[in-house]
Design a protein that fits this description.
Shape: globular
Largest sheet: 5 strands, antiparallel
CATH topology: Methylamine Dehydrogenase, Chain H
CATH architecture: 7 Propeller
CATH superfamily: YVTN repeat-like/Quinoprotein amine dehydrogenase
Strand order of the largest sheet: 1-8-9-10-11
CATH class: Mainly Beta
Radius of gyration: 21 Å
Number of domains: 1
Length: about 425
């Protein structure tokens, strides 16, 4: 039986949320903060791209690829006019958003289901501050706390297992597909004009807020990356006198006070770069040259010094995944592994069908979904790119979301599917 918990009314006013945020005073620094721990995947945590550094590494254990892999359950809401948008996997629970026709910004709840059975555990509506307020982006989960952003700039903190609302915090900005990160009980989040650091607790406190754009012409990306003592995010500004082309600025901020240490462009001229994988003081990402239909991966030191670029002849959709000395990315006809220090190709894996989703690394295995109309997920060895197995999925195309308790969660078509070894 589906269990629906009636948790909270969600009827907090925006004024009340601002009161919780203690928004009248924004401290610019918080004194002697210790250096955050390395942003590696940890059990019972969830963040987009695996961790706060967005390396694509997810905590295991993964599937036993030498055994049969079966479908445990699926959620298909197309008959109700809904698409399923999975947004988190953690500690035996899968979180998703039911999206009307896939794009409509209508109010919609965050729904939690049991990863083993697909049974609904609870649902939580967004705070009713505005008629069009909706949950969007992806949550950050750690220590039993789930923080979910809304389109109107509210962060909703709730119990990850029960859905009970703990608090609402207003970042005073518009959030577009925000993907917050949590490191050492500090949440880092961007709105379209700024980046904020929020100390988590019973009543969250604002540590700092750094304006980087105006939210209209210059727009800050929704994905922040945190590693060591820096936060990295990008902003996009239009190329003067050229329609539909943007320049990407990369901003490197100090975690202690939000001060901007470095700012530099992702590409010499136009190009778009939205998110970054970080490791040992190096920033890895992808730039799309939209006017030319090409993309390339690149590595920069924190201060912007170029280490290498790997140019491709076509536009790719996958951001790089990083693990130790290896950087993995999608290339024409398959996946490639690059030396993290030099960018030289270490291996190339040709796949039967086109892939264009982000890579997920679990226990030295790369999982990546095929592009529509192919209903398959490929599993490759991160060591040499060898194709280990092909995992069928029920609908066209696939995107791996994550894994929990040995259950792989993926989007297949516009639906949600769970895959595992027989139990």
């Amino acid at each position: 039986m589906t269990a629906k918990a009636a948790v909270g009314t969600g009827a907090m006013t925006r004024r009340a949320a601002m009161g919780l945020a203690v928004a009248s005073a924004l401290p610019l620094a918080f004194g002697g903060q210790t250096r955050p721990a390395a942003a590696k995947p940890l059990p019972e945590t969830w963040m987009y791209a695996g961790n706060a550094a967005r390396t694509g590494e997810h905590s295991g254990p993964g599937l036993d690829l030498n055994q049969e892999i079966v479908e445990l359950w699926r959620i298909d809401q197309r008959q109700s006019g809904l698409f399923v948008d999975p947004c988190g996997v953690c500690d035996g629970i899968v979180y998703y958003l039911p999206v009307p026709d896939g794009v409509s910004p209508e109010p919609r709840p965050l729904i939690a289901v049991d990863a083993a059975t697909g049974t609904e555990l609870w649902r939580h509506d967004p705070p009713a501050t505005e008629p069009t307020t909706y949950f969007g982006g992806e949550p950050a989960i750690t220590g039993g706390l789930l923080v979910m952003p809304t389109s109107s700039g509210l962060l909703v903190g709730m119990d990850a297992r029960s859905g009970e609302e703990r608090w609402v915090f207003d970042v005073q900005g518009t959030c577009r597909q925000s993907r917050p990160a949590i490191v050492d009980d500090v949440l880092y989040v961007s709105d379209t004009a700024a980046v904020s650091a929020v100390k988590l607790g019973e009543a969250p406190e604002w540590l700092w807020k750094t304006p980087l754009g105006d939210g209209t012409t210059t727009i800050v990306s929704g994905t922040v990356s945190v590693d060591g003592d820096v936060v990295v995010v990008s902003s996009l500004s239009p190329v003067p006198l050229v329609e539909e082309l943007n320049i990407t600025d990369i901003h490197v901020l100090n975690v202690a006070d939000g001060a901007e240490a470095y700012r530099y462009q992702a590409a010499p001229d136009e190009g778009e770069s939205y998110q970054f994988a970080m490791q040992d003081g190096v920033v890895y990402s992808r730039v799309d040259l939209l006017g030319f239909g090409r993309s390339f991966y690149y590595a920069r030191t924190i201060d912007g010094t170029e280490m290498w670029t790997t140019r491709t002849t076509t536009e790719v959709r996958s951001y790089p995944a990083v693990s130790g000395e290896l950087v993995c990315g999608v290339a024409v006809g398959g996946v490639e592994g690059y030396d993290a220090a030099t960018g030289q190709t270490v291996w190339t894996s040709s796949l039967p069908e086109t892939v264009d989703t982000d890579l997920v690394l679990i226990d030295d295995v790369i999982y990546i979904g095929a592009a529509p109309p192919t209903p398959v997920i490929y599993a490759l060895s991160a060591a040499d790119g060898m194709l280990l197995t092909s995992i069928p999925v029920p609908f066209n195309g696939a995107q791996v979301i994550g894994i929990t308790d040995g259950i792989l969660i993926a989007r297949s078509g516009v639906n949600l599917v769970a895959l595992a070894n027989p139990r």
